Task: structure prediction
Amino acid sequence: DTEVTQTPKHLVMGMTNKKSLKCEQHMGHRAMYWYKQKAKKPPELMFVYSYEKLSINESVPSRFSPECPNSSLLNLHLHALQPEDSALYLCASSQIGQGDLAEQYFGPGTRLTVT
Amino acid sequence: DQQVKQNSPSLSVQEGRISILNCDYTNSMFDYFLWYKKYPAEGPTFLISISSIKDKNEDGRFTVFLNKSAKHLSLHIVPSQPGDSAVYFCAAKSGGYQKVTFGTGTKLQVIP
Result:
């Protein structure tokens, strides 16, 4: 199984809502990632979890709150978002190490629209 | 500061011909490079990679060349097929650090 799944596929939320994005992998990967991608831009790293612990936070605003309940699951909790937060949110996973262990497997993404 | 750059935002190639996608980087600490392919509304898919100890890696129709002195890498697709039409991202990382830095992307169109 080389699949990373993400739910929901699409999400529309108001600026006062609280919602969560979910990501799951069963490849035994111990690193999981959240990326944000705007149209015609590269994926932009938000968070990295290594061995279920937050290892990288790319100065993301606190209205985005990641959570890694176990080695297969990754959540992104959203609260009080702004319209400019509308984007494709990608989850990825990889093994931990150098070289080809770096290869990240991406999910299909959640298309988020903030109204 | 864009550490990984793809200076051609788009490229059109006839089916059967060679596609060459270029990527430049500025961080000399990068020691592993990857190419990803992305279709609209999907996540990026890993294509091919190369370690800095090599200058070439080949996988079927895809070959990646690395020129460390020029801090330049390229992806060659031969022969190009219409199904190769997608956005291609170059990416780089250093050592065991988990962060991967993506380039700006090149949209490839293969014309039948």
Notes: The two ends of chain B are 38 Å apart (CA to CA). The mean pLDDT of chain B is 94.
